[in-house]
Specification:
single chain; 251 residues; Membrane-bound Lytic Murein Transglycosylase D, Chain A; Lysozyme-like; 2 domains; 3-stranded mixed beta sheet; disordered N terminus; binds zinc ion
Length: 251
C-alpha cells in the first residue's frame, strides 16, 4: 500500500542562497518521479505532520502536494517561514508523503558514507536532539536520514537534514575528512541485529543513485562508515546487505 510514498522527486536548485544559514527555497526543475503506482488523489486525506529539523512550509507543500497557502491558513501560522522543530501541523487534503530531494550544483561532495543509527527506533528529530544536546554539535550530523517506520515516521521516508539544505559539512565521520567531502546518510536501525527494511533499501538505492549521478561520485567512493580507512566501527552493521545494495545500484 501507498507505494507512492517512495516517490522520489528530484528538485534541481540552480542557486545557493548567499547567506549560509538562510533556508534555500529552490526555484527548481522537477524531474519525472521514478515510480507512480497509485494516483495520489485517490489517497488524499488530512494528516498531522510533526515538523522535522529544517523543514519549512514550502518543503511540506512539496512533500504532500499541497499549496503553501492552504497549510498557512488552516494552521493560522503568523509567519510561515518560522516553524519550530516538533511543531504539529495539519496538512489538509494531503497526498501520500513523498520524498523531495533537493540537489545543488557543487564540487564539494566526493563521497557517500552510509551509516546506521545503531538504535531500533528514531527519526531526524530525535537524532537532532541527541547531537545537539548530548554531543553539543551544531544539530543533526547527517545529511539524510532514512526512517524505518518507527517514531511516527513512515518506513522508507527520506528526511532531508538542515546540513544538506544549507550545503554544510557533516558531523558523521571525522576520518578521511569525510565530514567535509562525504554526504552522510543514516538508516534508522541497528543492522548488527535487525535487517534493513525493503522500503529503506528502496529509498537508499534511489537516493544514492541520484546523488552519485548528480555529483559524479564513482562506486568506489560509496562506503559504509566502517569501510573508511582509519575508522574502527562496524557501522552500518554486520548484517547490512551490501550484495543486495550493489546489485540494485546497477543501472
Ligand atoms: Zn556511522
Amino acid at each position: 500500500m501507498q507505494k507512492s510514498r517512495f516517490l522520489l522527486y528530484i528538485v534541481l536548485a540552480f542557486t545557493l542562497a548567499s547567506c549560509a544559514r538562510a533556508p534555500v527555497r529552490p526555484t527548481q526543475i522537477e524531474v519525472i518521479p521514478e515510480r507512480i503506482i497509485t494516483a495520489p488523489e485517490v489517497l488524499r486525506s488530512d494528516v498531522m505532520h510533526e515538523v522535522g529539523p529544517g523543514e519549512t512550509v514550502w518543503r511540506l507543500s512539496r512533500m504532500y502536494d499541497v499549496q503553501v497557502q492552504d497549510i498557512v491558513s488552516v494552521n493560522r501560522l503568523p509567519d510561515s517561514s518560522k516553524l519550530e522543530k516538533g511543531q504539529k501541523l495539519l496538512i489538509p487534503n494531503a497526498a501520500p508523503l513523498r520524498s523531495v530531494i533537493p540537489l545543488w550544483p557543487s564540487n564539494k561532495w566526493k563521497y557517500i558514507i552510509i551509516h546506521h543509527s545503531a538504535t531500533d527506533v528514531g527519526k531526524a528529530l530525535s537524532f537532532d536532539y541527541v547531537h545537539s544536546n548530548k554531543r553539543h554539535w551544531k544539530g543533526l550530523g547527517y545529511h539524510f536520514v532514512i526512517d524505518n517506520g518507527t517514531s511516527g515516521k513512515e518506513d522508507g521516508q527520506i528526511e532531508v537534514a538542515p546540513r544538506w539544505m544549507h550545503q554544510e559539512n557533516g558531523a558523521h565521520c571525522k576520518a578521511g575528512s569525510m565530514n567535509y567531502q562525504g554526504i552522510g546518510i543514516c538508516l534508522v536501525g541497528n543492522f548488527n541485529s535487525d535487517s534493513v527494511s525493503a522500503r529503506q533499501m528502496e529509498a537508499l538505492v534511489s537516493l544514492v543513485k541520484e546523488l552519485k549521478k548528480h555529483y559524479h561520485i564513482p562506486d568506489s567512493r560509496i562506503l559504509g562508515h566502517g569501510q573508511v580507512p582509519g575508522v574502527s566501527t562496524d557501522c552500518p552493521g554486520k548484517r547490512f546487505p551490501w550484495n543486495d545494495f550493489w546489485r540494485r545500484l546497477k543501472p
